[in-house]
Amino acid sequence: MRAIPLIFFWMITFGSFAQADLNTSGLPKENVYLHSAKNFAVVGEAIPLSITITMDQQATVSQFAYADLISRHGKRYGGAVIPLEEGKASAYLTIPQNTPSDHYLLRIYSRYAASLKDEAQYHQELITVVNPNIPPSQPSPQTKNDTQWETPSAANEMMTIAPNDPQIGPGDPSSINLKASPHSKLTLSISRKNPFLDKAKWIKPAPSQKEPSLAHLLPELRGHLIKGTLTEASPDTTKLYFLSAHGKQSALYLGTANPKGEIYFDLGALKNYDFLLLQSDTDSVPFSLNLDLPFAPPSSAAYLDLPPLDISVAQKGMLDDMVLGASTTGYFRKPTQKNLQPIVTGYAPDRGYNLDDYNRFEDLATTLKEYIPTVLVRKKAGKYHFKLTNVPENSVFEGNPLMLVDGMPVFESDQLAHFSPDKFKRAEIINRQFYILSHAFDGILSLISYDNDFGGYPIPDRALYLEYPPIQQPVNWKFDAGKQNDHSPDFRSILLWQEEVQLDENGKATIPFTASQLPGTYEIKVSQITPDGRQIWATKELEVSDQ
């Protein structure tokens, strides 16, 4: 039986758990499996990742995974918020341009494991980053601890790799013969071999020494959770905060602080936004609320005892080739974003009006007054106010409705009333008391622009514009050699990347590929997750040489 009911029980009874220090010994454990297309990269490159996370040997209930790089000094470089589908993700991690040359810890984990502070539920492996502008620094002397690393077996009886040619010339076509159990699926990569790590190495998990409390448990069962923390000494638990997400689609989320000053916004099905806006229900900018980054704290010091990166003068030519390959591949073979299906956002209106069906007046006040009978436009002290009819009660609401422009809350009704309606395509009305979470509003007046860009309406002065890590979007990779008449330079360091190689009834598959113009030693890696929860590997070397 899966452990979902136990986690839901925590969600339902969080209020009581927040006051208790209960142990987590009964919670299920996650296992993270990773096949990275390469473990040797230049800054600016994106490393393709095939991620699988299980919970008790079934797909995890976590809806997101996280990837980042941790330096030997405990500093995080980069980070990706990765949506999971049934515990799996085809993802990538982009190496930031300011990353110094060195070995790093590549970590994959869920918010569930991070909230438990249990690094045994992470995947952590070494990768090497080269930055032509920032050479590696000499690490300070540390006590070595070689027992923390483990290396996957390079060969096993369950999988075999047989290249047609162990050595091929630059630009030559070739193929690989794979053999494993019938009808199984494998992940396959061919990439430039890392000359600074003799073998792939990752952290050998050790059980957590400290039992965390359930009060910190944060599973993402529905959508991405954005956590905010108030800086006030005595947080106001009644103050309402509005977080609106904007991009190709927009959505609105509400939250109030708990006694610890923590506010949580669950984005639900929304997985694509460009920026966030934060407002409160008071006439002030919410400077006291800070949004926390969703990434885990740096790894334990014992895990950051990384080997030094020693680069010799003789390796300059090879590194120049890698830098050339990264720049040309990133330009000529840049991955393209996959087309995504839009989701349903906003609220189902009682009435909707396509404004193109009407002659617009000079301002919204006149337009709404003339065409929408359930929106009443009133003036008080020289300023416009909107009142909605309460259809179920056959009355008129006393307060202003919740006013939205492309999902962004607007509190200045007079400013909205004077704004031109020309760039709004639709008006939607809810003429009844409407609840968002436990907060009641006197109806909703929502205006939707043509391009989801607020129709030129200004962002309110009381709103905070927030840059928050985006949710990663799936992409199509271009690691093939291209067409014959394609004269773009081919300096790929990844020759092949296939996340699901389907074997036939005999357990065989032949996969074609073409070498790039970069000579050197390449590594063929094949991985598979067995039914009993083991990730098995097979590796072979391939020489690309014009000799």
Task: Outline the fold blueprint.
Elements: H1 4-12, H2 14-17, E1 30-36, E2 40-42, E3 46-55, E4 58-59, E5 64-70, E6 76-83, E7 88-94, E8 102-109, H3 111-116, E9 123-130, E10 149-150, E11 160-163, E12 167-168, E13 173-179, E14 185-192, E15 202-203, E16 225-230, E17 241-246, E18 251-255, E19 262-266, E20 275-280, E21 289-291, H4 316-332, E22 336-337, E23 351-354, H5 364-371, E24 375-380, E25 383-390, E26 395-396, E27 402-405, E28 408-410, H6 413-417, E29 424-430, E30 434-436, E31 439-441, E32 444-449, E33 464-466, E34 475-476, E35 494-502, E36 508-514, E37 520-529, E38 535-544
Q: What does this molecule look like?
A:
With 547 residues, this protein is mainly beta. The protein has a five-stranded mixed sheet. The longest helix has 17 residues, at 316-332. The chain is elongated, with a radius of gyration of 28 Å. It starts with a helix and ends with a strand.
